Amino acid sequence: xxxxxxxxxxxxxxxxxxxxxxxxxxxxxxxxxxxxxxxxxxxxxxxxxxxxxxxxxxxxxxxxxxxxxxxxxxxxxxxxxxxxxxxxxxxxxxxxxxxxxxxxxxxxxxxxxxxxxxxxxxxxxxxxxxxxxxxxxxxxxxxxxxxxxxxxxxxxxxxxxxxxxxxxxxxxxxxxxxxxxxxxxxxxxxxxxxxxxxxxxxxxxxxxxxxxxxxxxxxxxxxxxxxxxxxxxxxxxxxxxxxxxxxxxxxxxxxxxxxxxxxxxxxxxxxxxxxxxxxxxxxxxxxxxxxxxxxxxxxxxxxxxxxxxxxxxxxxxxxxxxxxxxxxxxxxxxxxxxxxxxxxxxxxxxxxxxxxxxxxxxxxxxxxxxxxxxxxxxxxxxxxxxxx
Length: 388
Ligand SMILES: *Cc1c(COP(=O)(O)O)cnc(C)c1O
Hints:
The chain has helices at about 5-15, 55-65, 75-80, 80-95, 105-115, 130-140, 150-160, 185-195, 215-220, 250-260, 260-265, 270-285, 290-310, 325-340, 370-380, and strands spanning about 30-35, 35-40, 100, 120-125, 145, 165-170, 195-200, 230-235, 245-250, 320-325, 340-345, 345, 355-360. By secondary structure, the chain is an alpha/beta fold. It starts with a helix and ends in a 7-residue tail after the last helix.
């Protein structure tokens, strides 16, 4: 039997120990953490919808109508009319023929990739893809090939060298720890020249980018309506609820219903949750001011950081990482901010590459300009301009 304590101690000594905080308030710009009120720049609640009263009311009404549990998997008796209505609304929202709900984004990625790429097939992934996209290739038993970050030419070279086999390309739309955008039109063109499908995981773009918040694909002028373009959207970030969906062609969705194990072998999400997400979708589509406000806050943060010489990474999205380098230094900076009442997480290897530890600042429409200024002043006081 393996000793568990020594590796834990080693991890702690290396500054890589992961720990949870206890939050005692709903999501907002300021949250209560372990009994303290903190100004938080760490959630993915980009539009400020995670505690919206209209969505909470829809969840409560949904619970009255449907109860709490779905009772079974979608393919047994768990697939309610509320789920069906949400799938139809999401498909229409992103312009896809069909959409299929999954319990989480993690499971959606596992489900799509393992259903489309099995043993003997190849999955091509950006080096900075989210862990769930990598795990999807493992679950299916496909061979995983990783191409240089956001580099369609490198992808194309690898596709050309791969010989004949089923090929699937997968990329984050917005990279979760970097905030930059994948070159989607170039990735899709490369995939098409080599008879490959492209899967775009838009966990951080949906609701935030594109007209009406339709996401990274819409931002790039693409629509997931053909057999070779697949969208995964998550609902726990900008949408402020929970869960995920896959959008694409009729044949794709039917294939997933037949074959995606993380879809088949799990209980359907609560129908009340589907009601809540329908309410959220109306706000995402209808309230452009949330995206406009977010853009203004991003511009303010970037202008202030440039003035102070703070090394923000190149990003136009609400994910605004500040590069530090060593894990210990990132942790120390995060702790200094915490002492000043500001919560910004240090992101360390293996989540990001060795030597690129960072503070992952995330902005939300729930923040005020004054709060962004407070963050800038605290970063300056902590010497964040001098660490990288
Ligand atoms: C958060 C995230 C997921 C997982 O989604 P969940 O619904 O939280 O499981 C998948 N991909 C990316 C890029 C993410 O950031």
